[in-house]
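Write out this protein's structure.
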Amino acid sequence: MKKNKWALAALAVAAVIGLTVSSCKKSSTTTTTNEETSTATDNNTAEHIVSDMTAIAAQSSDGTSGLASYRSTSDYEGGAICGLSCATVTRSGQIITITFNGSACLDGKTRTGSIIINYSGSAPGAVHYRDPGFSCTVTTSNYVVNGFQVNVVNKTITNTTPTGFNPAVTNETWSIAADVNIVRPSGGTINWNCNRTKTLLNTSDTSIYHGSGTGSMRPITWSKARVGLTGSANGTSANGNTFSASVVSQLIRDFGQCNISGFVPLIQGTLDFTPAGHPTRVIDYGNGTCDLDATITVNGVTTHFTL
Protein backbone atom coordinates (compact mmCIF):
# COMPACT_ATOMS: atom_id res chain seq x y z
CA MET A 1 0.00 0.00 0.00
CA LYS A 2 1.27 3.46 -0.82
CA LYS A 3 1.28 6.12 1.85
CA ASN A 4 0.11 9.74 1.54
CA LYS A 5 2.29 12.67 2.50
CA TRP A 6 1.02 13.36 6.03
CA ALA A 7 0.36 9.75 6.93
CA LEU A 8 4.03 9.13 7.75
CA ALA A 9 4.21 11.99 10.22
CA ALA A 10 1.12 10.71 11.96
CA LEU A 11 2.37 7.12 12.01
CA ALA A 12 5.60 8.26 13.62
CA VAL A 13 3.67 10.20 16.26
CA ALA A 14 1.54 7.16 17.03
CA ALA A 15 4.64 5.02 17.34
CA VAL A 16 6.67 7.31 19.56
CA ILE A 17 3.76 8.25 21.81
CA GLY A 18 3.64 4.59 22.75
CA LEU A 19 7.30 4.57 23.80
CA THR A 20 8.54 4.86 27.36
CA VAL A 21 11.27 7.49 27.27
CA SER A 22 13.80 7.39 30.07
CA SER A 23 17.22 8.67 31.08
CA CYS A 24 19.61 6.95 33.46
CA LYS A 25 17.81 8.56 36.38
CA LYS A 26 14.42 7.18 37.33
CA SER A 27 13.27 10.66 38.31
CA SER A 28 13.62 11.70 34.65
CA THR A 29 11.45 8.89 33.31
CA THR A 30 8.42 9.92 31.27
CA THR A 31 5.79 7.25 30.73
CA THR A 32 2.80 7.32 28.45
CA THR A 33 -0.77 6.22 29.13
CA ASN A 34 -3.38 4.33 27.14
CA GLU A 35 -5.18 7.65 26.72
CA GLU A 36 -2.12 9.21 25.06
CA THR A 37 -1.72 6.22 22.73
CA SER A 38 -5.41 6.35 21.82
CA THR A 39 -5.16 10.08 21.13
CA ALA A 40 -2.19 9.58 18.81
CA THR A 41 -3.92 6.72 17.03
CA ASP A 42 -7.02 8.85 16.38
CA ASN A 43 -4.83 11.66 15.05
CA ASN A 44 -3.14 9.12 12.80
CA THR A 45 -6.51 7.96 11.48
CA ALA A 46 -7.60 11.50 10.68
CA GLU A 47 -4.28 12.28 8.99
CA HIS A 48 -4.67 9.25 6.71
CA ILE A 49 -8.26 9.99 5.76
CA VAL A 50 -7.87 13.72 5.09
CA SER A 51 -4.63 13.13 3.19
CA ASP A 52 -6.10 10.58 0.81
CA MET A 53 -9.13 12.81 0.16
CA THR A 54 -6.65 15.51 -0.91
CA ALA A 55 -4.93 13.06 -3.26
CA ILE A 56 -8.29 11.93 -4.69
CA ALA A 57 -9.26 15.56 -5.32
CA ALA A 58 -5.95 16.17 -7.09
CA GLN A 59 -6.29 13.05 -9.23
CA SER A 60 -9.90 13.63 -10.22
CA SER A 61 -9.31 17.28 -11.16
CA ASP A 62 -6.37 16.31 -13.38
CA GLY A 63 -8.54 14.04 -15.55
CA THR A 64 -10.59 15.56 -18.34
CA SER A 65 -13.63 13.30 -18.27
CA GLY A 66 -13.26 10.44 -15.83
CA LEU A 67 -10.90 7.82 -14.51
CA ALA A 68 -10.14 6.56 -18.00
CA SER A 69 -8.31 9.83 -18.66
CA TYR A 70 -5.85 9.28 -15.82
CA ARG A 71 -2.21 9.07 -16.78
CA SER A 72 0.34 6.64 -15.42
CA THR A 73 -0.10 5.92 -11.72
CA SER A 74 3.45 7.20 -11.18
CA ASP A 75 2.26 10.69 -12.15
CA TYR A 76 0.26 11.00 -8.95
CA GLU A 77 1.39 11.67 -5.43
CA GLY A 78 1.95 8.24 -3.92
CA GLY A 79 0.33 6.68 -7.00
CA ALA A 80 -3.27 6.68 -8.12
CA ILE A 81 -5.92 5.70 -5.57
CA CYS A 82 -9.15 5.12 -7.45
CA GLY A 83 -7.96 3.05 -10.39
CA LEU A 84 -10.53 1.95 -12.93
CA SER A 85 -12.62 -0.47 -10.88
CA CYS A 86 -13.38 0.82 -7.37
CA ALA A 87 -15.02 4.10 -8.39
CA THR A 88 -16.67 6.06 -11.17
CA VAL A 89 -16.06 9.74 -11.82
CA THR A 90 -18.70 12.03 -13.28
CA ARG A 91 -18.51 15.73 -14.14
CA SER A 92 -21.27 18.28 -14.25
CA GLY A 93 -19.94 21.74 -14.95
CA GLN A 94 -17.38 22.43 -12.23
CA ILE A 95 -18.54 19.62 -9.93
CA ILE A 96 -16.77 16.27 -9.90
CA THR A 97 -18.39 13.33 -8.11
CA ILE A 98 -16.39 10.21 -7.27
CA THR A 99 -18.70 7.34 -6.35
CA PHE A 100 -17.17 4.27 -4.73
CA ASN A 101 -18.58 0.76 -5.08
CA GLY A 102 -17.05 -1.04 -2.10
CA SER A 103 -14.29 -2.91 -3.95
CA ALA A 104 -10.65 -2.38 -3.04
CA CYS A 105 -8.96 0.65 -4.56
CA LEU A 106 -5.34 0.70 -5.70
CA ASP A 107 -4.19 1.72 -2.21
CA GLY A 108 -5.83 -1.40 -0.74
CA LYS A 109 -8.63 0.48 1.03
CA THR A 110 -12.34 -0.19 0.48
CA ARG A 111 -14.68 2.77 0.11
CA THR A 112 -18.39 3.35 -0.34
CA GLY A 113 -20.38 6.53 -0.80
CA SER A 114 -19.20 9.61 -2.62
CA ILE A 115 -16.68 12.44 -2.50
CA ILE A 116 -17.80 15.62 -4.24
CA ILE A 117 -15.29 18.20 -5.49
CA ASN A 118 -16.66 21.63 -6.41
CA TYR A 119 -14.14 23.96 -8.04
CA SER A 120 -16.58 26.68 -9.04
CA GLY A 121 -14.70 29.10 -6.79
CA SER A 122 -11.55 28.80 -8.90
CA ALA A 123 -10.06 31.62 -10.92
CA PRO A 124 -11.04 31.67 -14.61
CA GLY A 125 -9.25 28.90 -16.50
CA ALA A 126 -8.02 27.15 -13.34
CA VAL A 127 -9.42 23.65 -13.76
CA HIS A 128 -6.59 21.47 -12.48
CA TYR A 129 -5.01 21.00 -9.06
CA ARG A 130 -1.75 22.27 -10.57
CA ASP A 131 -3.27 25.52 -11.90
CA PRO A 132 -2.66 28.77 -9.94
CA GLY A 133 -6.00 29.97 -8.62
CA PHE A 134 -7.55 26.50 -8.56
CA SER A 135 -9.73 26.20 -5.46
CA CYS A 136 -12.12 23.43 -4.52
CA THR A 137 -14.36 22.47 -1.67
CA VAL A 138 -14.58 18.80 -0.76
CA THR A 139 -17.74 17.29 0.69
CA THR A 140 -18.91 13.74 1.30
CA SER A 141 -22.13 11.77 0.99
CA ASN A 142 -22.35 8.55 3.03
CA TYR A 143 -18.59 8.20 2.56
CA VAL A 144 -17.04 5.27 4.42
CA VAL A 145 -13.41 4.15 4.12
CA ASN A 146 -12.32 0.89 5.76
CA GLY A 147 -15.32 1.11 8.08
CA PHE A 148 -14.73 4.73 9.15
CA GLN A 149 -17.61 7.08 8.30
CA VAL A 150 -16.30 10.48 7.24
CA ASN A 151 -18.39 13.62 7.57
CA VAL A 152 -16.73 16.73 6.16
CA VAL A 153 -17.77 19.93 7.91
CA ASN A 154 -15.42 21.89 5.67
CA LYS A 155 -12.46 21.04 3.46
CA THR A 156 -10.88 23.51 1.07
CA ILE A 157 -7.84 23.11 -1.16
CA THR A 158 -6.46 26.21 -2.89
CA ASN A 159 -3.52 26.53 -5.24
CA THR A 160 -1.87 29.66 -3.86
CA THR A 161 0.85 29.95 -6.52
CA PRO A 162 0.91 33.41 -8.14
CA THR A 163 -0.68 33.62 -11.60
CA GLY A 164 1.94 33.83 -14.32
CA PHE A 165 4.67 32.60 -11.99
CA ASN A 166 8.07 31.57 -13.28
CA PRO A 167 8.59 27.93 -12.21
CA ALA A 168 12.34 28.37 -12.49
CA VAL A 169 12.31 30.62 -9.42
CA THR A 170 8.92 30.10 -7.71
CA ASN A 171 7.56 26.87 -6.26
CA GLU A 172 3.94 25.77 -6.52
CA THR A 173 2.05 25.96 -3.21
CA TRP A 174 -1.34 24.90 -1.90
CA SER A 175 -3.25 25.75 1.26
CA ILE A 176 -5.29 22.94 2.79
CA ALA A 177 -7.89 23.54 5.50
CA ALA A 178 -10.09 20.77 6.87
CA ASP A 179 -12.69 20.25 9.59
CA VAL A 180 -13.93 16.65 9.70
CA ASN A 181 -15.80 14.27 11.98
CA ILE A 182 -14.90 10.60 11.74
CA VAL A 183 -17.07 7.88 13.29
CA ARG A 184 -14.97 4.87 14.19
CA PRO A 185 -16.36 1.38 13.46
CA SER A 186 -15.61 0.47 17.09
CA GLY A 187 -17.58 3.49 18.35
CA GLY A 188 -16.82 7.10 19.18
CA THR A 189 -16.23 10.14 16.99
CA ILE A 190 -12.94 11.88 16.17
CA ASN A 191 -13.14 15.64 15.58
CA TRP A 192 -10.14 16.94 13.62
CA ASN A 193 -9.04 20.27 12.12
CA CYS A 194 -5.98 21.29 10.14
CA ASN A 195 -4.47 24.27 8.34
CA ARG A 196 -1.55 23.34 6.15
CA THR A 197 0.67 24.69 3.40
CA LYS A 198 2.08 22.24 0.89
CA THR A 199 5.00 23.20 -1.37
CA LEU A 200 6.40 21.47 -4.44
CA LEU A 201 10.03 22.21 -3.64
CA ASN A 202 11.39 21.20 -7.05
CA THR A 203 8.87 22.98 -9.27
CA SER A 204 11.81 24.21 -11.38
CA ASP A 205 12.50 20.65 -12.59
CA THR A 206 10.81 20.33 -16.00
CA SER A 207 10.58 16.55 -15.64
CA ILE A 208 8.30 17.09 -12.63
CA TYR A 209 6.27 20.23 -13.30
CA HIS A 210 4.97 20.33 -16.88
CA GLY A 211 3.03 23.56 -16.86
CA SER A 212 -0.54 24.52 -16.01
CA GLY A 213 -3.71 25.57 -17.76
CA THR A 214 -5.75 23.84 -20.43
CA GLY A 215 -2.78 23.62 -22.78
CA SER A 216 -0.85 21.37 -20.41
CA MET A 217 -1.94 17.76 -20.70
CA ARG A 218 0.28 16.27 -18.02
CA PRO A 219 -0.14 16.48 -14.25
CA ILE A 220 2.77 16.94 -11.88
CA THR A 221 4.98 13.84 -11.74
CA TRP A 222 4.67 13.25 -8.01
CA SER A 223 6.88 10.15 -8.09
CA LYS A 224 9.85 12.54 -8.51
CA ALA A 225 8.57 15.36 -6.32
CA ARG A 226 10.21 16.89 -3.27
CA VAL A 227 7.36 18.03 -1.04
CA GLY A 228 7.44 20.37 1.95
CA LEU A 229 4.71 20.75 4.58
CA THR A 230 4.04 23.34 7.24
CA GLY A 231 1.07 24.16 9.45
CA SER A 232 -0.86 22.72 12.35
CA ALA A 233 -3.65 20.39 13.38
CA ASN A 234 -5.78 19.89 16.47
CA GLY A 235 -8.72 17.85 17.54
CA THR A 236 -10.51 15.64 20.01
CA SER A 237 -10.05 11.90 20.12
CA ALA A 238 -12.95 9.47 20.35
CA ASN A 239 -12.46 9.19 24.12
CA GLY A 240 -12.70 12.99 24.54
CA ASN A 241 -9.00 13.87 24.88
CA THR A 242 -7.77 16.94 23.04
CA PHE A 243 -4.45 17.25 21.23
CA SER A 244 -2.49 19.50 18.91
CA ALA A 245 0.27 18.99 16.35
CA SER A 246 2.38 21.80 14.92
CA VAL A 247 5.18 21.78 12.36
CA VAL A 248 8.12 23.72 13.82
CA SER A 249 10.40 23.46 10.78
CA GLN A 250 9.19 22.33 7.37
CA LEU A 251 8.66 18.59 7.00
CA ILE A 252 10.16 17.20 3.79
CA ARG A 253 9.67 14.03 1.77
CA ASP A 254 11.62 13.33 -1.42
CA PHE A 255 9.78 10.86 -3.65
CA GLY A 256 12.50 10.83 -6.30
CA GLN A 257 15.61 10.59 -4.12
CA CYS A 258 14.57 8.70 -0.99
CA ASN A 259 12.56 5.56 -1.53
CA ILE A 260 13.48 2.81 0.92
CA SER A 261 11.95 -0.49 -0.21
CA GLY A 262 8.86 1.32 -1.44
CA PHE A 263 8.60 3.54 1.65
CA VAL A 264 9.13 7.31 1.29
CA PRO A 265 9.98 8.64 4.77
CA LEU A 266 10.08 12.15 6.14
CA ILE A 267 13.77 13.03 6.01
CA GLN A 268 13.83 16.56 7.42
CA GLY A 269 11.95 18.87 9.78
CA THR A 270 10.51 18.90 13.30
CA LEU A 271 7.00 18.43 14.65
CA ASP A 272 5.51 19.17 18.08
CA PHE A 273 2.77 16.79 19.24
CA THR A 274 0.98 17.68 22.47
CA PRO A 275 -1.73 15.57 24.14
CA ALA A 276 -3.68 17.82 26.55
CA GLY A 277 -2.26 17.68 30.05
CA HIS A 278 1.00 16.04 28.93
CA PRO A 279 4.40 17.37 27.89
CA THR A 280 5.02 18.23 24.24
CA ARG A 281 6.78 15.56 22.20
CA VAL A 282 9.32 17.14 19.80
CA ILE A 283 9.86 14.82 16.83
CA ASP A 284 12.93 15.51 14.67
CA TYR A 285 13.14 13.77 11.29
CA GLY A 286 16.71 14.77 10.51
CA ASN A 287 18.64 17.10 8.20
CA GLY A 288 17.80 15.64 4.79
CA THR A 289 19.77 12.39 4.81
CA CYS A 290 17.85 9.52 3.22
CA ASP A 291 17.34 7.19 6.17
CA LEU A 292 14.75 5.93 8.64
CA ASP A 293 16.29 7.62 11.69
CA ALA A 294 14.44 10.15 13.84
CA THR A 295 14.39 11.35 17.44
CA ILE A 296 11.78 12.23 20.02
CA THR A 297 12.47 14.61 22.90
CA VAL A 298 10.26 14.77 26.00
CA ASN A 299 11.17 16.91 29.03
CA GLY A 300 14.72 17.33 27.71
CA VAL A 301 15.28 13.58 27.23
CA THR A 302 16.02 12.55 23.63
CA THR A 303 15.57 9.03 22.26
CA HIS A 304 16.38 7.73 18.78
CA PHE A 305 13.82 5.62 16.96
CA THR A 306 13.32 4.09 13.53
CA LEU A 307 10.47 5.17 11.27
